[in-house]
Structure formats: structure tokens, C-alpha cells
Amino acid sequence: MSTQSAGPLERFKQQEYTGENRCTPCTIVNVVIAAVGSAAAGVVLTPVGGGAVFALSLAAIYFRGYLVPGTPTLTKRYFPDWVLAKFDKLEAEQVGVAEEEREPEEVLADAGAVEGCEGVDDLCLTDSFRESWYDHMDAIDRDGSEKSELSHVLDVEEEKLSFEEHEEALVAGYDEGRLGQWESRAALVADLAAAKVLEERYPDWDALTVTNQSRVLSGLRIFLETCPDCGGDIAMEQDTVESCCRTMDVVAVSCADCDSRILEVEHGQ
């Protein structure tokens, strides 16, 4: 949806709670409050006065993100966590896993990317896949070819692609729309390089859905040993992050030297 007509008013928005940062539960609660308050105003004043109050209330919610001060904090504190989690999933546009999709471990094993670790009941990268993956990451980092590689992976026009940084995250846009999001540039480089290797080693790679490919690629990031962005060590830790709706504990994989986030999974999932 184009926003050109609202351009002059954008500077009045409270960016922290509007746009992509808008909290859906907060908005719903405040619209309900606005409706109730406007109905009361319509009784005390006139129906026209009630309509004016409602219009002003909606304008406040649109530009500020909420009507009642402190709503974001109160929503996180008093709404049940399972309700807020559902809003998180809707706003992240998460797609359900279809029955025909393959598990990441199966794809990686068939591609010769992982094998059983020696002496440990776990999976490790194969030497040949590790070497090829890191060679491709180095090439993308050296050439700055993220845009051309992404256009190839998704089969879209490169000139219509764009990248934007939102705090630590990297968002890819296509023809004025949102295409995808990665935790960081390092995560994007890792995915693009891995997709290139898997395309060569796994014959059915192009037959997988984009969602299935994304699950495989993000799962593969857990095997990174050095950072694609700065070459430093990889560290895993438990962290607390703020979403639009709630505070949650996550298991975070990051670059120790440059703090680039490689992977973030909600703790307990």
C-alpha cells in the first residue's frame, strides 16, 4: 500500500510504537477504549460530539501507537503470555510447516552437509561442505554481492531489491514491498552461501518451498564456527529480547567480536 499521500504527516508519528513496531494487542485495547469513551461522550454531548471524540482518538492511536499512556508496558505485564505469543507469530507472518516439507536434518544429510560427530551423539559439518560453504561466504563478503545472490536464490529482478537495517536486523525489500528479514547481514551472507552450495549438492533443492528452504538454511547456521561478517568466534547464550508485544527469553547465537546476531530461537520451542 502506498503511503505517499501521508508523507507530510509522517514526522508526527512516534516511530517506537507505530509502523512495523506497532503492538497489535495495544492497538486493539485502545480502539475498544476509544469506542467506549466516544459512546459515553455521545450520550453526554451529542452524537456528532461522540463521533469527533472517536475520530480524534483514532488519530492519536495512529500517530502515537496508543491512546492511554503506558499501554505497551501494561499490555506486556498483564496480558497472558500465550495471547501475546499468538500476536507475535501473526505479525512475523510465520507460515505453518506443510506435511510434504522435509526436515532440515534430512535435507542436510542427503546433501552431504552433515554427518555424525566422532565420539559424540550429535551432528557435525562434513569437511567438504564446510570448506565450500566458507569459500562462498568469503566470496560474497569480498564482492559485496548479497543483492545479486539473493535475486538468484529467489528468482527476482536484482534492480528492484533493496536492503534496510532496522536496529540489528536486515530487511530485504522488493518493489516497495517487504521480502524477508534476517537477524543480521552475517545471517544473510551465511544463508546465501549455503543456498549456493545446497543447490549444487542437493538435486531437489529447487523443488522445496521457500519456507522449507528457509528452515534448512536457518538450521544450518547453528553449525557456524566463525562469523561471516568479522571472522570472530561464535558464541551461544540465553538472552532476553523485546518484541512488539512482549518480553521473551531466547537462545541467541552471535559473533563474539562484532555482536552480529546469527540465529535467535525462543527458549523452550
Please explain how this structure is put together:
The strands form three sheets. The chain has a three-stranded antiparallel β-sheet. Strands 6-7-8 form a three-stranded antiparallel β-sheet, with no helix packed on it. The N terminus is likely disordered. α5 packs across α9, α6 packs across α8 and α7 packs across α8. The chain starts with 23 loop residues before the first helix and ends with a strand. It folds into two domains: 76 residues, no CATH class; 163 residues, no CATH class. Helix content is 44%, strand content 18%. It has nine helices and eight strands. The protein is α+β, with helices and mostly antiparallel strands. β1 and β2 form a beta hairpin.
Count of domains: 2
C-alpha geometry: elongated
Largest sheet, strands/sense/barrel: 3 strands, antiparallel
Helix content: 40-55%
Widest sheet: strand order?
3-4-5
Structural class: alpha+beta
Averaged pLDDT: 76
The helix-strand sequence is HHHHHEEHHEEEHHEEE
What gap, in angstroms, lies between the N and C termini?
A: 34 Å
Q: What are the low-pLDDT stretches, counting only 5+ consecutive residues below 50? A: 1-9, 78-87, 89-97
β-strand percent reads 15-25%
For the secondary structure, the number of strands is 8
The gyration radius over C-alpha positions equals 23 Å
| Number of distinct helices | 9
